[in-house]
Amino acid sequence: MPREDHAGLLDALAAIDPSTCSYDEWCEVGMALHESGFSADDWDRWSRRDAARWHEGECARKWAGFGRSERRVGSGTIVRMAETRGWSQADGDEALGWDDEATASVDPSWVEDRPLDDADSGEWDPARQLSDYIGALFDDDDHVGYVTESWERDGRHVPSRGHWDRTAGQLRRELAECGGDVAKVIGDWDPDAGAWVRFNPLDGAGCANKNVTEYRYALVESDSLPPERQRGMVEAMRLPCAAVVSSGGKSVHAIVRVDAGTDYGLYRKRVEQLYAYCRRHGFAPDEANKNPSRLSRMPGVTRRGRRQLLLATSCGAESWAAWEEWVAESEDDLPDETDSSDFDEPLDLAPVLIGTDEGEGIMRMGQKGILTGDSKMGKSYCLIDLAEAVATGGRWLGRGCLRGKVLYVNLEIQEAEFRQRMRIVWDDRVAHGEPADVAALKEDLHRLQLRGRACLMPDLVRPIVRRVRRMAASGEPVRLVVVDPVYKVNGGDDNDSAKVTAFTNAVDAIIAQTGVSVVYAHHHPKGTAGQKKSMDRMSGTGVYARDADVMMDMTAIDMGERDREEKLGGLPAYRMSVDCRSFAKPKDRDFAFRWPRFVAVEGLERYKVEGEDPYARQRRGKEERDRRNREEAKSLMWGAFSACVADGLAAEDGTVGIGAMMAHMGERKETEGKPDRKTVRRWAESDWCRVGCRKVEVPSQTGGKPTETTVFYDRDSPLENGWE
Asked: Which of 176, 239, 377, 723 is 20 to 30 Å from 464 by CA-CA measure?
């Protein structure tokens, strides 16, 4: 398959860190590139990002064997690997994917190539080149690291540690006096290897990361695009460059201002932001260049007969902050804010789907709802009942439903068993006076059987969207998609907020592209669901409940076997609590499960739900009192410590003695008086208190045995945290 048919594949590849791949995955990437019309060089450039495992010539040797076996690995392998690592791509005529980043403001296909200023001909002032580069990056008293010596390994020129003994001012003065002969200043270099320079200032004692005195710049370079296109992309992305250099090879080196000062954590964060931005715009930077002591190509020297040329200085945005602001403005694809001049205009709300009777609404079209309850309590029967109610315009759990087509995504029940459930639920509806329009049921209730073929919900977005659009082609609106159950499509870990968020975002994508409502089922954990609020009863993270527009929880009622037999004939009873975003919270309703459907029952208000803690209110009261007392203690401790420091009573190491602390201690509201020393020490030993304490020995002034006392300190102090 020709390479141009896979124009976006390198973007997906850039999202995959080769160091996270197994050997088999690495080979599969190569096979996929081979099958898609790319070259061994493309595979090799990507593999180089894993410097610890990359070997010269290995990709070429493997490449020669691809295509000989019957096994074929296509581009989809790379796409799937990238998607598992968070990469996504919007389909041409569909909305953005559920985990898409902001719309890219720079498209490589629209960027004009920028020539390298006839890099290998014309006037050439190498001393001026290097001097201008040093002047653009360094202050006169900064030590500059550079390398001219190199050695060969596996056919590659590997730089030595080089030099770092001279300042930028010294180098520029010597360059001005060298008569254009750069070698007089920096020494001779291998004409096949070129020379290198470190783009951050050093302390003059070494060239490692620890010797970097200020994290000013990061290196952005990539050889996945032609050099002329690379330069055009650097300019189009307005990277805040101190300098741009042609490497004399396949890449352009952009020395980008990150302005991180001496904060290494901030440097790492900004480099990650920078590289992510570049990848998002089709410019995959070499991940091996993240270290602040990394070498870049030195302008003013030659390499294999080609010039390492300074192309520009001080271009793009003037600073990191200015660039961030530009990025925010250029990638802001949100709608403009509006005033409230439409306050009095009629509202165009989506129609009610569940609760169509006046004052009974709980869910509108385009919303998502979740039904929760104990395992094996009959949730699937309940959702089948809902699907039939919508398909025929009937009622569900006492609430009217808007009529329309339904797609039921069945992930758990065998097909024949599911059809049997549909029939018996329908028969029960008819037997109890519900609309008997079986023709509407047959035509408008569609099922998608995925038992044994379940996958993550994000992977189901497009298949479901396609089927909903086909169903709507007849002109009859599709109202509802049911997904049953959640655990089959959420990645298998209810406590993983990232996986749950991916699930809910996928549901949002279905709604955004079709306008349907989506309802799905989830289960309670074992044990204490009744002790929690309805919003918190389901298994795993609270993202499920808080994300849904409607949360319908059914919790078993604890009424004892005798009462259950007398009042309900032994049927299990449940209390449904509904929390909804668009309507007032309705009153809880009680239901009995009279197989195969839930039916409303009255007179069970005095019973609690199973597991409900009768002492929950008292416990919550105690927790609140403890919280208030803790906040008061934190305030008293910090107030006393701060007063001691302000009065000059702190020692050189920042500690305050217990006597001074007690003298400045305020009074407690609850007990009306100052806390005693024992209480103060106990507070300081607690992890919630900013003021800590420790025992210290005080030498005797008479030469006797030292005494022990307590001193207090600020846990956030740089001295205490080793920040010197």
From this structure: 377
Q: How many domains does the chain have?
A: 4
Query: Over the chain, what is the mean pLDDT?
Result: 87
Distance CA 285, CA 113 (A): 18
117 within domain boundaries: no
Neighbour-count burial for 438-456, b at 16+ CB within 10 Å, e otherwise: eebbeebbbbbebeeebeb
Location of structure tokens 């949730």 = 379
Which three-class secondary structure string do you get for 583-631?
CCCCCCEEEEEECCEEEECCCCCCCEECCCCCCHHHHHHHHHHHHHHHH
Q: Which of 67, 68, 66, 47 is nearest to 57 (CA)?
A: 47
Helix (H, G, I), strand (E, B) or coil at 561: helix
Residues 183 and 251 in one domain: yes
Q: What percent of the chain has pLDDT over 70?
A: 88
pLDDT at 70: 56
Same domain, 632 and 601: no
Phi, psi at 501, each rounded to 5°: -65, -40
The residue segments making up the domain with residue 82 are 3-100
At residue 654's C-alpha, the angle toward residues 653 and 655, to 5°, is 95
Same domain, 559 and 655: no
The 10s digit of each residue's pLDDT in 75-105 is 778 887 887 666 665 433 332 232 333 345 6
208 and 324 together in one domain: yes
Does a structural domain hold residue 495?
Answer: yes
Residue appearing with tokens 């996929």: 32
| CA distances from residue 521 to 82, 489, 552 in whole angstroms, order as listed | 30, 11, 10
Buried b (16+ CB within 10 A) or exposed e, 280-314: bbbbbbbbbbbbbbbbbbbbbbbbeeebbbbbbbe
The pTM for the full model equals 0.49
CA atoms of 481 and 469, how far apart (whole Å): 12
Place of tokens 């080149």: 129
Q: Tell me the CA distances in angstroms from 669 to 619, 621, 633, 673, one per residue in order.
A: 22, 18, 10, 7
Residue 118 lies in a domain: no
Mean pLDDT of 121-127: 83
Looking up tokens 């898609």, which residue turns up?
Answer: 36
pLDDT tens for 383-400 read 999 999 999 999 999 999
pLDDT (0 to 100) of residue 99? 32
Rounded-to-integer distance, Cα 539 and Cα 527, Å: 11
pLDDT tens digits along 574-606: 999 999 999 999 999 999 999 999 999 999 998
Distance CA(315)–CA(313), nearest Å, equals 6
Residues 134 and 228 in one domain: yes
Which pLDDT belongs to residue 596?
A: 96
- What is the distance between the alpha carbons of residues 685 and 691, in angstroms, rounded to a whole number? 9
165 within 8 A of 174, measured Cβ to Cβ: no
